């Protein structure tokens, strides 16, 4: 922020108005560590240093208003912990949720491409996987054809049957799209790790085929949902030993 003010001051028009020649973006990641809600700090009996830090931050933000070339962007995963006065100063608040199904497809497709590049997936089917917009037609057909490709639907218990029903590339696209439909609650960070986690848990040997790996990925996705449900149930049933405290899980 000091660099931004310095640049803006150097380009000032002499009348106190900021006119810096450079467009400056200030990014504050995990802003709740600097702009923690003061009311919670007071009620929690925390040291006053944190409150003074928030006051100083708000003062500096107010000083930046006269510099039109300076933009401040902040990110947080714990928006409830941010001070109300800080939120009031934000001109635009954007909630970025978990990736859409098209984004999930692309994330997993990139992971499969990387595994093929290093030899963990042996066949060439990965390179023929269409992008999300190509596989998007599975949004309407995925419940039937995708389930059959994964061996879930009636008359699809044998892998050879699904192989005969669809061309290899399209069948793999349907399988991957179907897997993505079951991962709506997963973050992008977890999705990027999922293929490699699946390989370490379900693959025996140095490599596997794309068809077998997609089936293993489908199994891992189902196991992950069961583990999340069990963990959530355990938290709900566990007796609390922190009465009177607000805890972020």
TrEMBL record:
Residues 224-249 are annotated as: Disordered. This is ATPase AAA-type core domain-containing protein. The keyword ATP-binding applies. One of its GO terms (molecular function) is ATP hydrolysis activity. GO terms for biological process: meiotic recombination checkpoint signaling; reciprocal meiotic recombination. Residues 100-221 form the Pachytene checkpoint protein 2 C-terminal domain. It comes from the Eukaryota. PANTHER family: PACHYTENE CHECKPOINT PROTEIN 2, PACHYTENE CHECKPOINT PROTEIN 2 HOMOLOG. One of its GO terms (cellular component) is nucleus. Keywords: ATP-binding, Nucleotide-binding. Residues 25-97 form the ATPase AAA-type core domain. Gene3D superfamilies: P-loop containing nucleotide triphosphate hydrolases. Belongs to the AAA ATPase family. Residues 240-249 have a biased composition (Polar residues).
């Amino acid at each position: 922020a000091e660099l931004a003010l310095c640049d803006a001051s150097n380009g000032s028009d002499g009348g106190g108005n900021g006119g810096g020649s450079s467009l400056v973006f200030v990014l504050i990641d995990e802003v709740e560590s600097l702009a923690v809600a003061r009311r919670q700090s007071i009620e929690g009996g925390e040291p006053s240093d944190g409150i003074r830090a928030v006051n100083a931050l708000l003062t500096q933000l107010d000083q930046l208003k006269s510099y039109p070339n300076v933009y401040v962007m902040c990110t947080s995963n714990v928006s409830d912990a941010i001070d109300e006065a800080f939120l009031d100063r934000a001109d635009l608040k954007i909630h970025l949720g978990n990736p859409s199904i098209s984004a999930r497809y692309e994330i997993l497709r990139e992971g499969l491409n990387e595994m093929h590049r290093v030899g963990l997936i042996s066949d060439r089917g990965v390179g023929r996987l269409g992008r999300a917009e190509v596989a998007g037609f599975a949004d309407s057909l995925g419940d039937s054809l995708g389930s059959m490709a994964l061996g879930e639907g009636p008359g699809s218990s044998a892998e050879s049957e699904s192989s005969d029903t669809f061309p290899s590339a399209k069948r793999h696209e349907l399988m991957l799209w179907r897997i993505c439909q079951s991962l709506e609650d997963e973050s992008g960070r977890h999705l990027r790790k999922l293929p490699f986690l699946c390989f370490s848990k379900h693959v025996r040997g140095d490599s596997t085929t794309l068809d077998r790996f997609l089936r293993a990925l489908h199994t891992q996705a189902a196991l992950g949902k069961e583990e999340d449900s069990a963990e959530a149930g355990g938290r709900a049933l566990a007796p609390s030993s922190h009465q009177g405290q607000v805890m972020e899980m």
